Amino acid sequence: MVVGNYYKCVNCDHQYRIRYNIGGNFPQSSSFYCKTCGISITYGYDGNRKLVLDNIEEVEESNTAQVINLHPELSIDESKESDPTYFPSIEFMIKQKGLEELKAFRHAQVSNVEFISKWDECKEDFRLLTEERWPLLEKKFGTDRTKIKRILLDKVISAAEVFLEGKWKSLIDGFRKELALAKAHPNYPQLKTFLEGYRDEFMFHKLYEIMNQYRSVESELLSTLLEQKRGNKPSGLSSSAKWEKIERIYGDFYEVYGDLAVIPTVINNLLSRNNYDQFATPGFTLKAYLETDKAKRCINFAGNANLAILGQFYDASLRNGTHHKTAKINKAKQKIVLKTGKGGKSEKVWSFVEYIEFCNEIFARCLTLLIIYDEVVV
Fold first, then answer.
1. Separation between Cα atoms, residue 275 and residue 268, nearest integer Å
2. 326 CB contacts (<8 Å, ≥6 apart)?
3. What domain of life is recorded for the organism (predicted)?
């Protein structure tokens, strides 16, 4: 259902006719930058379905107001952003693709709602666990601390698996095939002992860190998420273009992934060379691997068909350009210009939608590695 009205920017008085398609979950919102002054404008609804406005106020109907089409769960066709006859609705966009496509999108909506619900239900207890607030946890779960850890990890892993429903399930399925082969290897116990040394860092601190961080920007990453869950490549304009909230997100997830990449690396070493610590390069050790630049962390398992896919969407130039604020950002056109190549002589242009796509993909890969890690050390 498309709703909306006439509004003006509180900063410059530029007038808009907002056409907003209500999404499947509340709270929800979309945002864009004022076409005149560049201030961030938000339109949406809170958890009680009450209208939420930021930097705009309602005005009388105007024939000169600029149309803005918004959808919290879909990207918008760039050529239709201000088209008053365009309906940015799921049914309208998927009508020509058939009922099965619509059902798949609805399933993706439901899985996203379930992911949020599952994480919100346990995130406070999981925070207490990462901070070792044992008196509070024992009051709720009993005095067996090992059991408390397992109960809460199971809850968080369950939420992570819901996030990975759809196309990302293939990430776990492929990795599990390699893990099954590794577990059958006579030298697997040494690999397991090595990875167990990361248990607290990976399964508590890093898992909490990325889950909590993703939830904090979930609205900004939602515009491409449901398309990605269905295996489609998103395009167009984001209806949640708050660059200030997400500019460091990819880099943060990239850093976590770079640490977690040791998991497929040692599994691939074991399967390829019978020793989790042995690399293809003579004399190159695991210690050296852990001290190398994170940009090269996926090279080791690039030749393994079931693991190579995990290294996709791991882009050092995107991480460096956005994390260190060396990229040029055009908010009006939703473009990111990165310097690439030696000395930054070349440029690569990314759209906000492409950036958001990479954020979701690298997050999905972090969750995959953590789920498999839990199956290694359990």
1. 9
2. 320, 338, 339
3. Bacteria
Distance CA 250, CA 272 (A): 31
The pLDDT, as a whole number, for residue 100 is: 75
Residues 272-303: pLDDT tens digits? 999 999 999 988 989 999 998 899 999 999 99
Look up tokens 């304009």; give the residue. 237
Q: How confident is the model at residue 91 (pLDDT cuts 50, 70, 90)?
A: low
Three-class secondary structure of residue 255 per DSSP? helix
Shortest CA distance to 352 belongs to which of 263, 244, 268? 244
pTM of the model: 0.94
Which of 171, 147, 148 is closest to 160 using CA atoms?
171
Unique residue bearing structure tokens 């995959």:
368
> Is the alpha carbon torsion for 323, 325, 331, 335 positive or negative?
negative
Helix boundaries (H) for the chain: 90-94, 99-130, 134-141, 145-163, 169-183, 188-196, 199-200, 207-216, 218-229, 243-246, 249-260, 262-273, 286-291, 305-308, 316-323, 352-377
Q: What is the spatial distance between Cα 344 and Cα 234, in angstroms, rounded to a whole number?
A: 28
Residue 274: which H helix or E strand, with range?
A: none
pLDDT digits (tens, 9 = 90+) for 336-356: 999 876 666 788 999 999 999
Amino acid at the residue 118: K
Output b/e per residue, 52-90; b: 16+ Cβ within 10 A: eeebbeeeeeeeebebbbbbbbbbbeeebbeeeebbbbb
Measured CA to CA, the distance from residue 332 to residue 324 in angstroms comes to: 21
Higher pLDDT, 322 or 9: 9
Kindly state the tokens that stand for 270. 């074991």
The residue ranges of every structural domain in the chain are: 2-95, 99-377
Smallest CA-to-CA distance from 218 within 103, 362, 72 is with: 72
Contact call for residues 166 and 111 (beta carbons, < 8 A): yes
Distance, CA of 66 to CA of 282 (rounded, Å): 64
Residue 44, classed as helix, strand or coil, is strand
